[in-house]
Amino acid sequence: TQHLKGTPPKIEALPEDISIEKGKVLTVACAFSGDPLPEIVWSRSGRTLPTEEESNRFHIETTDDLTTLIITSVKENDAGAYTLKLSNELGSDTATVNISIRSM
Amino acid sequence: DLFGGAPRFLTRPKAFAVCVGRDATLSCTIVGNPVPAVTWEKEKLRLTSGGRFKMVEDGDVYRLTIYDLTLEDSGQYMCRAKNPVGEAYAAVTLKVALPAE
Prior knowledge:
The complex is a heterodimer.
Chain A: E1 7-13, E2 17-21, E3 25-35, E4 39-44, E5 47-48, E6 58-62, E7 66-71, E8 80-88, E9 91-102
Chain B: E1 8-16, E2 24-31, E3 37-42, E4 45-46, E5 53-58, E6 61-66, E7 75-83, E8 86-94
Antiparallel strand pairs in B: 1-2, 2-6, 3-4, 3-7, 5-6, 7-8
């Protein structure tokens, strides 16, 4: 049998519940590991972010061990569950962060 | 500039030293303009300096030290940075272990 070298992706720690005021910039950083470097997908309600119509407000920045979701000019209807999924040929890992909007 | 001065993590929170009875320091680098206010939470409870917890700022570097670790200190710690432009969140998982024989 052939053994694959490397390690499956692992999400180190993603906050569970966070909140932000309308109009502000929100960044959520999540540390991960995995070799080979996992494919990283942030999504909401099954739609990969940034969606085409919201590409000006949603941004994903990823380095070797950190992936960051950035939402600028936060809107009321940005509230909800956001899912981060990492995958490589050895496996996958998923975590969800709930974002709520505070009134000022 | 995407952030317009909003807080962001340049380095993520990392844990150093994780044995029962030792001290652990969670450390990260955060920038923002104006300089953000940084708070730490564990399981939704805000941590404050005093007792076994100490929070220190050294320029852009923010540290939470937990003295005399117990197994119950294990868990997820969330770091929150806030200024008038926005907020940044990151978490770190601390696993406290029994000392190796």
